[in-house]
Amino acid sequence: MRTLALLALFACAARAEPPKPAATANGEPIALADVDAVIRHTLPNAPISANQLRALRREVVQDLIDDALLRQFLAKHGPKVDPAEIDAQLKAFGEKLARDGKSLADFYKETGQTEPQVRAAWTAAMQLTGYVKSVTTEQQLKAYFDAHRDVFDRAEVRVRHVLVRAGKNALPAERAAAKERAEAVRAAIADNRIDFAAAAKRYSQCPSAADGGDLGFVLRKSALLDEPVARLAFALKPGALGVAETEFGFHIVQAVERKPGTPTTYDKCATEVLDAYADDHRAELLAKLRKEAKIEVTLP
Questions:
Q1: Whole-angstrom Cα distance, residue 107 to residue 90?
Q2: pLDDT, tens digit, 9 for 90 and up, residues 237-281
Q3: Are 157 and 218 in contact (CB under 8 A)?
Q4: CA dist list (Å): 101 to 39, 63, 105, 112, 198
Q5: d(CA 36, CA 280)
C-alpha cells in the first residue's frame, strides 16, 4: 500500500510540472500554447493534418522568437514608454471600435490576443520607432526616400509568380533542389516552351496557382509580397522574369505591367519614410540579434 501511495504521489507531481516550452530565446520561454493560438487565429476553421501542424508550428515559433529577441533588445536599448501613453492609445482605439459597434474585448478575441500582449506589442513598436530615430539622421532618411521613390510615390506593379516551396527548416540539399526546379521552370517560360499561367497552374505551390500565379497590382511595400519578391518585381522591366528566394522557397517572378504612381516629396511623407526605414532596420537588427542569441527550439 505504501508503494502504491508513493507512485500516486509521484504521478501527481509529474502532472503538476509546467509544460515544456516550444522554444527559448536567450532563456526566455515561448509557450506552445502561444504558438498554437497564432495558428488558430490565422487558420480558424481550416482542417490541419498532423504534418501540416508541425510545419506551421515550426514557422510560427520562429516569428515569436523574433518578437522575443526584439523585446529583449529594446528593453535594454530602446527609450522608455510611459504606460499612460499606451492607456491613451487603448482608450482612443476603444472609442473608435465603439463607433463601429465593437469593443476592445471583441478585438482581443478576434485577434487571439490578451490585453497584456497588445500592450507589449504596442510598447515595442513605439520603442523601435524611438530607437531608430535616436540612431538615424535626417540626411539618412532623405537618402532612403530618394532610393525608395517607388514606395512613397505609391507606384504599382502587376505581379505573377510561381512558388517552388522549400521552407525555412528545409535541409540545404532540399533548398538546392528547389532552386534547380525553379530555374528550370523559369527557363521553360523564357524559351516559350510553356506560358506563365500554365506553368503556375502546373508547378506553383501557392494558392495563386489557380489564377495563373497572378497577384494583381501591388505596392512596393505590400503585405502580399515578401521583401525579396517585391524588390525583384519592381526592378524588372514589364515582361521580364527573375527568381527570388524567401523563407518559403523560390519564386519565379514576372512584372507584367507598371503604374508609376504620383510623385511626392520628403516633407510630405516624412512620417511614412521613418516607418518604412524602421521596418527595414528591424529586419537588419533581427539578423544581427539571431547571430548573437542563444536559441533552442524544442517543439514536439
A1: 11
A2: 999 999 999 888 999 999 999 999 999 999 999 999 999 999 889
A3: yes
A4: 27, 32, 12, 19, 46
A5: 28
Q: What is the DSSP letter of 247?
A: T
Confidence category of residue 221, pLDDT binned at 50, 70, 90: confident
d(CA 295, CA 233): 34
Mean pLDDT in residue range 168-172: 77
Residue range 39-79, pLDDT digits in tens: 888 777 778 888 888 888 888 899 999 999 999 999 999 99
Residue whose cell numbers read 506553383: 204
Determine the average pLDDT of the residues in 12-22. Answer: 66
* pTM as predicted: 0.71
Contacts of 97 (CB under 8 A, 6+ apart): 103, 104, 106, 107
In 3-state terms, what secondary structure has residue 243?
Answer: strand
* Residue 226 to residue 248: CA distance in whole angstroms: 9
The cell numbers describing 40, all together, are 488558430
> What single letter denotes the amino acid at residue 127?
Q
Sorted by where each starts, the structural domains of the chain and their CATH numbers stand as 19-146+267-300 (1.10.4030.10), 154-259 (3.10.50.40)
**Sign of the CA dihedral 121, 28, 128, 148?**
negative
Q: Which three cell numbers stand for residue 150?
A: 517607388
